[in-house]
Structure formats: structure tokens, C-alpha cells
Amino acid sequence: MEQTSTVSADAGQRSVTSGRCNQWRSLTGFWLLGLCNNFAYVVMLSAAHDILKKQESENATASTTAMDFQGGNSSNSSRYDCNPVSTGAVLLADILPTLIIKLFAPFVIHKVPYGIRVLVCVTMAATSFLLVSFSSAVWMSILGVIFASISAGLGELSFLALTVFFTSNVLGGWSSGTGGAGVGGAFLYSGLTQAGLSPQITLLIMLVVPLVMLISYFFLLVPPPSLPQWRRMETGYAPVGSEERRQLIDGSEEEEQEKSTSENRTTGPLTFTEKLHVIKGLLKFVFPLALVYFAEYFINQGLMELLYFPNFFLSHAEQYRWYQTLYQVGVFVSRSSLCCVKIRKLWALSWLQVVNAVLLLFAVRYQFMPSVWLVFVIVIYEGLLGGAAYVNTFYFISEETEDRHREFAMAAASVGDSLGIAVAGLIAFPVHTYFCSL
């Protein structure tokens, strides 16, 4: 008897240990998936200035190409040392495909197994790095950025939806990983180019990232039994044989059929009408998220390039890269904060970000910022607000949504940040043109 009790205790201990191991594997897996999913997207934005500068240099006259960007841009007479094309062009190429995917995919993506989606994301990300690194024209660079956007958009809505099949802490892991992509991508790109590597070699090195995504999903995650992997399983339909026998025995086939239909309404796939109802309930989350991302990406791609301090030891291109890098540091810290603090007042974060955008807009126009160091502090703060808005939005959606609506809700709400970013990219064009004409 005592021996049986000991065996049971050992089995229970092994079960607990195995459960903890699986949780850590899933948490680590989601962190890496977040890192890999956003990596190409972040790198393309960090490289935006270099992508445009490379094409400008290749198409310039011999006298102009002799000027390296480190020494300034003589191709225009603007006091802002502008590129002819706004970095907002790269932002739009980086976000519009994502926006289109997030608008329409949640209604049909449930028919595609998660494994296949991951393979598509990996292929798109690898293609983006190759296209941009070997590009010989602007259109090739922009096409590469579009492939990165497709990968990031499909991955984000898929992995956010995937979190509902795991324990709640994987959402924090995913968000922290996406923040880590910002820091890792921006730091790695800035650091390697600063060290003397060309943007082409830097992008080729980053081909390892899609491979890590592949390994994380297929070999690191521990999928729960409820997770649809390679085969999409529709729930809510009882075994046919046993149900038919019970109906014949009870003699109440019509009653059982009505009961089965009722159960399907609560456990089966969501109808189109139900999805629209879920979207209506998500608007209180989507609008603040869209506003905070509009403000921060208007800063990042509409104003950062124009916040140039010519007497600083960093060149214009280097200042731009480090703006992007420090912004991503703020994002990483706040996206990793879910275990410490939760912020329910999402609108407050949005309006604080708008204040940042207005302040820097006037700083560009009237050039009253005393030092680049103050801009560095502001962009870190900007990243803290944006990251906090993201992670808290999806946390409260996950907490407040019904179980059967949660997978769709997490995927559908991801359109909020992309919508704000797309509008910011569109507005960045006329703002860039106006300031560069001064």
C-alpha cells in the first residue's frame, strides 16, 4: 500500500514538472515568435533612410554620387537635409499589405491551418530580406518591404489568435517578443552598419530570423489538444453513431435535433453576423489603439527624419537610426510590463501620444529643441506609450471576450495598430513635402 502511494506521488511530481516545462516552452516559443514575426518589419523601417538613399545615389550624377550621406545631402536646398522621397513611402509599403490582410483575413483565415500560415510567413520574410539586399531599383526595394509586411500582418493576427489555446501568460510572452524585435532589429541593423558592414550584408545576415520562427513553432511550442494544427477541426458536432442510437431509443429525434442545433450555435464556428457583433464590441479597443499608433508613426516616419542636428557627432543617417532604436527600447520595456502593471485607461495613452506628436511637429517647424539628447528622451517615452497601449489592449480583449469569440476577436482587433500606421504614412507625405520645400 505504501509502495503504491509512493509511486502515485512520484507520478504526480513528474506530471507537475512536465506541466511547468511545457509552460516555459510555450512562453519561450511565443516570445521567439513575436521576435521573429516583427523583425523584418522593424528592420525595413530602420533601413528606410538607407534604402531610399541607396537608390538616390545610384541614380545621381557623378558629382552628386561623390557625396556620401555621412557628409550631408546636396541634392536639395532644404534646411532639413531631406531625401527626395519621404521615409513614409517605405512605411506605406510596410503597412498597407498588413492592413489589407488584417481587414479581411479574420473572416476566412480559420479555414487555413496554423502550420501552413507559419510556412507562408517564413517564406515571405526570407524573400523580403533577399529582395531588398539585392535590389537595383526603388521598386525592388519596395516590393521586398511589401513581402515583409505580408509576413508580419499574417503572423500577428495568427499568433494573437493562437494565444487563446494556451495559458494566459503566453500573451505577455508574445508582446514582449514583439518589443524585443524592435530593440533587436533596430540595434542589430544600426550596430552592424555602424561597424562598417553594408546594408546588403546586414540584411543577408538576418536571414537566420525566419529559420528561428520555423523552429519555434514546430519544435518548441507544446500544442494543447484543442489546437488545430495541420487539420482544421470544426467543433460542436457530436459523434453521429451514438447520437443516432440514442435518438432511436428515446424516440425523440426531433427534440434531439433541436438540441444539437442549439449546441452548434454556442460551440460551432461563428456566423458572419456574430463576427460583426464581436467587431462592434471591439471598437472601444480598436479606436484608442489606432490613435496611439497614428501619433507615434507620424512622429517616426513623418518627423524623425527632419529632426536633424548638424553639429552633433552622429551624422544625419546615424541620428535617424538611433531615433528608431531608442524608440524600440521604450516599446520593448512597456510590452514586457504586463506581469507588473496593467493600464485600463487606453484613451489616456492615446492622447498623451498625440501631445508628443504635436510637440515634435512644432519642434520641426520652429527648431526650438536645444539638443538631440532631449529628442532621444522623448522618443523613448513615445515607445513606452505605444508599447503599453498594445499589450494592455490585447490583454483586456482576452479577459473581457467570451470564450468562443476570443480567437476571432484577437485576430480582428489587430487591425487597430495597422489602421493608425497607414493613416500616419499617408499624412507623412505632404508634411515631408512641405518641410523640404522650406
From TrEMBL:
<dbReference type="GO" id="GO:0005765">
    <property type="term" value="C:lysosomal membrane"/>
</dbReference>
<dbReference type="GO" id="GO:0051649">
    <property type="term" value="P:establishment of localization in cell"/>
</dbReference>
<keyword id="KW-0458">Lysosome</keyword>
<keyword id="KW-0325">Glycoprotein</keyword>
<dbReference type="GO" id="GO:0005802">
    <property type="term" value="C:trans-Golgi network"/>
</dbReference>
<dbReference type="GO" id="GO:0006865">
    <property type="term" value="P:amino acid transport"/>
</dbReference>
<keyword id="KW-0813">Transport</keyword>
<dbReference type="Pfam" id="PF02487">
    <property type="entry name" value="CLN3"/>
</dbReference>
<keyword id="KW-0812">Transmembrane</keyword>
<dbReference type="GO" id="GO:0045121">
    <property type="term" value="C:membrane raft"/>
</dbReference>
<dbReference type="GO" id="GO:0043066">
    <property type="term" value="P:negative regulation of apoptotic process"/>
</dbReference>
<feature type="transmembrane region" description="Helical">
    <location>
        <begin position="201"/>
        <end position="222"/>
    </location>
</feature>
<dbReference type="GO" id="GO:0061024">
    <property type="term" value="P:membrane organization"/>
</dbReference>
<feature type="transmembrane region" description="Helical">
    <location>
        <begin position="281"/>
        <end position="299"/>
    </location>
</feature>
<dbReference type="GO" id="GO:0007040">
    <property type="term" value="P:lysosome organization"/>
</dbReference>
<feature type="transmembrane region" description="Helical">
    <location>
        <begin position="171"/>
        <end position="189"/>
    </location>
</feature>
<keyword id="KW-0967">Endosome</keyword>
<feature type="transmembrane region" description="Helical">
    <location>
        <begin position="346"/>
        <end position="366"/>
    </location>
</feature>
<feature type="transmembrane region" description="Helical">
    <location>
        <begin position="408"/>
        <end position="429"/>
    </location>
</feature>
<feature type="transmembrane region" description="Helical">
    <location>
        <begin position="115"/>
        <end position="134"/>
    </location>
</feature>
<keyword id="KW-0597">Phosphoprotein</keyword>
<dbReference type="InterPro" id="IPR036259">
    <property type="entry name" value="MFS_trans_sf"/>
</dbReference>
<feature type="transmembrane region" description="Helical">
    <location>
        <begin position="141"/>
        <end position="165"/>
    </location>
</feature>
<keyword id="KW-0636">Prenylation</keyword>
<keyword id="KW-0449">Lipoprotein</keyword>
<keyword id="KW-1133">Transmembrane helix</keyword>
<dbReference type="InterPro" id="IPR018460">
    <property type="entry name" value="Battenin_disease_Cln3_subgr"/>
</dbReference>
<keyword id="KW-0488">Methylation</keyword>
<dbReference type="GO" id="GO:0006897">
    <property type="term" value="P:endocytosis"/>
</dbReference>
<protein>
    <recommendedName>
        <fullName>Battenin</fullName>
    </recommendedName>
</protein>
<dbReference type="GO" id="GO:0005770">
    <property type="term" value="C:late endosome"/>
</dbReference>
<dbReference type="GO" id="GO:0051246">
    <property type="term" value="P:regulation of protein metabolic process"/>
</dbReference>
<dbReference type="InterPro" id="IPR003492">
    <property type="entry name" value="Battenin_disease_Cln3"/>
</dbReference>
<dbReference type="GO" id="GO:0005769">
    <property type="term" value="C:early endosome"/>
</dbReference>
<keyword id="KW-0472">Membrane</keyword>
<comment type="similarity">
    <text>Belongs to the battenin family.</text>
</comment>
<feature type="region of interest" description="Disordered">
    <location>
        <begin position="248"/>
        <end position="268"/>
    </location>
</feature>
<dbReference type="GO" id="GO:0051453">
    <property type="term" value="P:regulation of intracellular pH"/>
</dbReference>
<feature type="transmembrane region" description="Helical">
    <location>
        <begin position="372"/>
        <end position="396"/>
    </location>
</feature>
<feature type="transmembrane region" description="Helical">
    <location>
        <begin position="30"/>
        <end position="48"/>
    </location>
</feature>
<feature type="transmembrane region" description="Helical">
    <location>
        <begin position="89"/>
        <end position="109"/>
    </location>
</feature>
<dbReference type="GO" id="GO:0043005">
    <property type="term" value="C:neuron projection"/>
</dbReference>
